[in-house]
Specification:
This protein is of the alpha/beta class. It is built from seven helices and seven strands. 38% of the residues are buried.
Length: 196
């Protein structure tokens, strides 16, 4: 990791903490992942050699940068979808500053629409960090766009376990998937599609 990227990540961490501490309005909060979650995602991408990554919920791009750093190493690419104009613009500036913009495609829109329009088995890894109330409705398309042997990672598995419980139960009950929860950051729920 370059020194300039390290500085940008630290700046975004501090901005996220100060912004979210001062603002109660959820759409204006950054709600970033923790640094250890970013490191975890980066290792997963490299370990899987994940070429095609989908992130649902860009915010200001902090998590995207961790994914893109790893994508660059494996010659992959991150597609990230965000509905908020405000957050989209913040993220675009951060991507330019990071020198990782060429490894990132920003999609302005609703995640459900992107999932519905994506081809089958289109992604190696899907990182889900968005409106938890939508997850159950998105599940059939998430399952469809994830390749066999692909990995779904969902943030806030322990910090918002009550909100996550119905989705986690649905995915865990699917015979085509193996799941676990990893106690990193706010908790990561992992589901991998069984290849046989």
């Amino acid at each position: 990791m370059t020194e300039s990227l390290q500085e940008l990540l630290l700046e975004l961490e501090q901005f996220g903490l100060s912004n979210d501490g001062a603002i109660a309005d959820r759409p204006k909060r950054m709600l970033n992942i923790t640094r250890d979650t970013g490191e975890f995602l980066s290792v997963l991408v490299r370990a899987m050699n994940a070429q095609r990554i989908l992130e649902i919920g860009t915010s200001n791009g902090y998590s995207t940068l961790w994914l893109a750093l790893a994508a660059k190493a494996v010659k992959g690419h991150v597609t990230t979808v965000e509905l908020s104009d405000f957050k989209l613009a913040l993220a675009a500036k951060n991507f330019e500053r990071s020198n990782l913009a060429s490894f990132i495609t920003q999609v302005h829109g609703e995640a459900g629409a992107l999932l519905r329009s994506s081809p089958e088995s289109n992604f190696d890894l899907v990182f889900l960090d968005s409106e938890r109330s939508e997850y159950l409705g998105w599940w059939p398309d998430i399952k469809r766009v994830l390749r066999k042997g692909g990995l779904l990672v969902v943030d806030n598995a322990t910090s918002h376990s009550g909100e996550m419980a119905p989705f986690a139960a649905q995915v865990s009950a699917d015979p085509g998937f193996t799941t676990c929860t990893v106690p990193i950051g706010n908790g990561e729920f992992l589901a991998t599609q069984i290849t046989q």
